[in-house]
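Troubleshooting log. The previous structure file for this entry was overwritten by mistake, so regenerating from the original sequence record. Sequence copied from the archived sheet and checked twice against the printout by T.R.
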Amino acid sequence: MTKTHSQLIGYLLWIFGFTGAHRFYYGKTVSGTIYFFTFGLLGIGWLIDLFLIPSLDRKADEKYHQGPLDYSVAWLLQTFLGFFGGHRFYMRKWVTGIVWLLTGGLLGIGYLYDFFTLNEQVDRLNQS
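Regenerated output below.
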């Protein structure tokens, strides 16, 4: 089995878990959205996830394909520089990277869109 995601990055994003960042990182968009709107299920789900991250990591490694793009790098860029298109430049999506840079991630809407789709975007590029 190839390693596409990192437990260390998962735990770092877990610190911001009330936003669902670690759930989105592992491809769990539905629960990530729920965490985003409920502040990590009022903190309870966030604490439980401290123990679930190893299994979330394992499942993500089974689901996604390894390739030239690193999921962890893309996610760190998305999380901290997403409004400026950092992750899009990393994926060589120059036009949309410039659009994100000039519009603040399309006023935040594109930033949120990428939280939902970043794993699939990287996976698609890694398979091509």
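The two ends are 20 Å apart (CA to CA). Archived copy saved in two places this time.
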